[in-house]
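Appendix B, example 12.
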Amino acid sequence: MCGLWLLRLSVPADPLEAGAWLASSSRRVAFALNLVPFAGIAFIWFIGVLRDRLGAQEDRFFATVFLGSGLLFLAMLFVAAAAADGLILAYSAQPKAILDSGTFAFARAFTFDVVHIYAFKMAAVFMITASTLALRTRVTARWIALLGYPSAALLLFGSGYSDWVLFAFPAWVMLVSSYILVDNLRGAPRIESKDDEQ
C-alpha cells in the first residue's frame, strides 16, 4: 500500500500528462517501484495462507478463479512496474529525447491501461471469489467477506476514473490479513485439510 501511495502522490492520474513528474519525482517513483516485488511476495504469501485456511473445504471452481485472478493481477502489476521503471531509466539516459518522442506517450499510456483497466479488474475478480469462498467456509468474519463485494464493484467500475479507488484492494487484503493474524494468535481451531486426513 505504501508503494501505491507514493505512486499516487508522485505521478499525475492523467495518462496524457507531458512528463514533468520525471524531473521532479523520478527518485520517489523508482523507490515505489522497487517495493513492488516485495508486495508481490507478500501477496503470494497471502494467497497461500487463505488456501491453507480453506483446507479441504476449498471449492475447485472458485479456487481456480481465485488463484488465477490473483496470479494474473500480480503478473500485470509486475509488467506495469517494469514498464514504468524502464521509462525512468530511459529518461535518466536521455531526458529531452524521451519526452519529445512517442516512446514516452506509449509507455505512460501502456502502464496506465495495464494497471487501471486490466490488473485491478483482476483484483476485483479475486476479491469476489475470495469473498464467496470466505462466506461458504467461514474462514473470515462474515462482514469482511461481505465488504469484499462492494469493494470489488468499486474496482470494476471506478478504477478507470480515480486512482484513489485502487486503494480499496490493498485495504481489503490488509483487513483480511489482520483478521487471520488475530484469529491465529487467539488459537482458533484450524479447518482440517486433505493432508491432515491422510
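The CA atoms of residues 20 and 130 lie 39 Å apart. Residues 102-137 form the longest helix (36 residues).
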